[in-house]
Structure formats: structure tokens, C-alpha cells
Amino acid sequence: MYDRPRPNPAQPAMTFDRMLERVRYEGAYPTRERAEEAVRTVLAALGRQVTADERVDLAQALPVEAALILTAQIPDTEQLTGWGFVKDLAARSGTTPAIARWDTGTVLSVVARLAGPDLLARILRRLPGGYALLFGQAELRQPRPASGGHVAHAHV
User: Fold this and answer.
1) Alpha helix positions (H), the chain
2) CB 27, CB 100: distance < 8 Å
3) pLDDT for 74-123, tens place per residue?
4) Which of 25, 22, 75 is nearest to 45 (CA)?
5) In whole angstroms, what is the distance from residue 107 CA to residue 85 CA?
6) Which residues, at least 6 apart from 95, have a Cβ–Cβ distance to it below 8 Å?
7) How far apart are CA 135 and CA 148, in angstroms?
8) H/E element holding 23?
9) CB neighbour burial string for 17-26, b if at least 16 within 10 angstroms, e if fewer
10) End-to-end CA gap in the chain
């Protein structure tokens, strides 16, 4: 009822450098450069999967540099399962699925803390099965209906 601008979302509490430090520590990477490589490849892959409001909200929760990596990607028309995500990441980065899984789990556990539980729950609801474990969460999904019950969501 009054002309007060909507408050801007809170700025991320973590800088990109601090994010890289957390990933390096949690992933036991030997160098900052290796941690940054993991962050860049995993966030780019995630940017191809997360769409709509969840993509925008996640970008706002991340440090600016991380948000730019995420949002620079054009979302894929077909969403991958969690395991498909890991296999695709391995193929694109030229690593083994084991290394891709390690990188994914390390980076996404930090992303999960930055996103917070509410946004993370929204993101997981929009993605196919298998992502909760990649974010360091329990996989507590309801089975999808077998016939005709799937609701299509518009993707941005």
C-alpha cells in the first residue's frame, strides 16, 4: 500500500574464495586450483539441470562468481537422474565416474548449506531421483505415479 521497494535478498554470507576453501578442505583437494576446477565443473553441470525459480533463488544464495557459473549454462531439455548427472559430468570433464561423484558430493554439500533447507527441498522436488544423496541428504522421495499422473513443469 506504500511505495517501499522490495528488500533485496540477503547477500551470500560466503565469498567465492571462502567457498573454494570449504570445498578444498571437505574434498581433501591438494590445491586451491583443483578445488576451483571441481566447483566450476559441478556448478556448470548443475546449471544445466536446475530451472525456474529454483535456479534464480539458488543463484542468489551463491557467491557472485559461483552464481555466474551456474547461470551461464543453458538448461538441458532432458533432466538427468543423479547417477546420470555424475556420468555426464565424468564424460564432459574427462574423469572417471568415481572422481566425478567425489567432486559432485563435495561441491553440492557446500551448495546445500548455502541454499538452506527450504530452497534445497524445493530444488530436490524439481529434480529426478538420486540428487538428494549428491547434496549430502537422505533420499526421501515419493514414488512417481506409474501412469498419467506426471505433471509437467514449465522450464526457464
Assistant:
1) 16-27, 32-47, 52-61, 64-71, 82-93, 97-126, 131-134
2) no
3) 999 989 999 999 999 999 999 999 999 999 999 999 999 999 999 999 99
4) 75
5) 14
6) 89, 103
7) 29
8) helix 16-27
9) eebbebbbee
10) 31
Full-model pTM: 0.82
106 vs 148: CA distance, rounded Å: 36
Are 47 and 69 in contact, with CB atoms under 8 Å apart?
yes
CA 116 to chain centre: 12
Q: Model confidence over 21-67: pLDDT tens digits?
A: 999 999 999 999 999 999 999 999 999 999 999 999 999 999 999 99
User: Residues 14, 63: contact at Cβ < 8 Å?
Assistant: yes
- Of 116, 12, 113, 122, the C-alpha closest to 61 is 12
What is the C-alpha separation between 46 and 76, in angstroms, rounded? 10
What cell does 66 get?
559461483
Among 60, 46, 77, residue whose Cα is nearest residue 14: 60
